[in-house]
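Thread: quick sanity check before group meeting

JM: Hey all, I'm pulling together slides for Thursday and realized we never actually wrote out the predicted structure for the chain we discussed last week. Dropping the sequence here so it's in one place. If anyone has concerns about the input, flag it before I start.
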Amino acid sequence: MYGTEQIISGTIIAGSELEPIEGYICIKKGIITEIGEERTSSTNIIAPCFVNAHTHLGDSVFKDPPLGRVSGFRIQRDLDALVKPPDGLKHKILRETPYKTLIESMRKSLLDMIETGTCAFADFREGGVVGVAALNKALEGLKLHSMILGRPAEPELPLQVVLAEVRRILLYSTGLGMSGANDLDLELLENIGTCTRQHRKFFAIHAGEKDTSDIEKALSLEPDLLIHLTNATKRDLEDVADAKIPVVVCPRSNLITGAGIAPVAEMLEAGIRVAAGTDNVMLNSVNMFAEMEFMSKIFSIDDRQVFKICTLNGSFVMGSDSTGSIQKGNKANFMILNGSSNNLAGIKNPISGITRRARPDDILSVLHS
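JM (edit): ok, ran it. Output follows.
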C-alpha cells in the first residue's frame, strides 16, 4: 500500500456529510489522493472506521462479572459498588492484577478493536504512571490512534505529592481522565485541571452518570470533554452547549449499570457535539457495531446521525479530523464491508444498513494509516 498507489472501488460513505457515492478511492503512502465517481460492479461498501471515544481497557482483565449481586450489591442498582474508586469492584481487581497480565489483557482488547473496524480510541487509564505505561506497552506495534487519559493512583496523598504524580503522568499520556467531581475534593480537581492545562494537555471528566449533583462542579473545572451526562437536565445541556464542551455517551454501559439512557436527541438539539464509547470492557466488548446498532434502535435520531456519532464525531473529540472522514487529503482509515454478504445483501440504503445491522464478520478488510 505504501510503495504504490492503491485503487479501491465500491459505494463510498464520503465526506463530512457521509454521502454515499458509487466510485473509487486512490491511496498513496497512507493518504487519500483522489475520490472519483463512476459506475462500478463492486458491491463493497467503503466506510469510515469507528472511533471508540470512551473506554476503560484495564477492565479487560475481568470480562464476565456477575450481573446479579456482587458483595451484597445489585450491580444494576449500585454503580458505585462496581466502578467508584478506590473500592469499587473493578478497582479491587485492578490492584490484584499482575502488571504482565494487565498488558496482555489490554492488548487483546486493542486487537479486537482493530478486527472490528475501530481506528482510534480514548481510554481513561487507572493506576497512575504505571497504568499509563501498561497501556503504552500494550499498544506497541499496533496501528491505532490513541488518546490515553491517566489519573493519579493515590489522590488521597498530600496535594504536592499528587501533583508531582500528575506531572509524571502528563509526560507519557495525552492528558487526564478523572472520575466524577463528587469522587474527589473539588479543590484537588481544580489543581489537577490547572496543572493539565499548564502542560497543554487534555482534561476530561465523568459527569451526570448517577445523578445531576456533579455536573455543575464538572463544568466549573472547564474540561475539554465530558463523559455520560446520562441524567442531565435541559438546563444542564444548555450550560454544556454554551461552554462548547463535547460529550461522549456510552448507552450499553449505562443500561447495564442502571444509570439510565442519555438524552442524546436533546444533546444534539442543544448543539452539543456527541460521540460514543463502549466504556468498561468488563461489561461490554469494544465492538462499536454493537454500540451503533443499540443506539439506532433506542434513540429517536436518524441513522446518519448515529453513524456520525460513532465515527466522525469521535475523531473530532480526539482532535484529529483527518482521521475520520473519507475525503481527499485525509489519512486512509476506513473499513471495506462486503455488501453482498448474507447479512448485508439487499440493503437499499448503505448508511441505514451499516448502522442497524452490520457486524464485524461483514468486514473484508480494514485500512489504518
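AS: nice. The chain has a mean pLDDT of 92. The chain has two domains: 6-49+324-367, 50-321.
JM: adding both to the slides.
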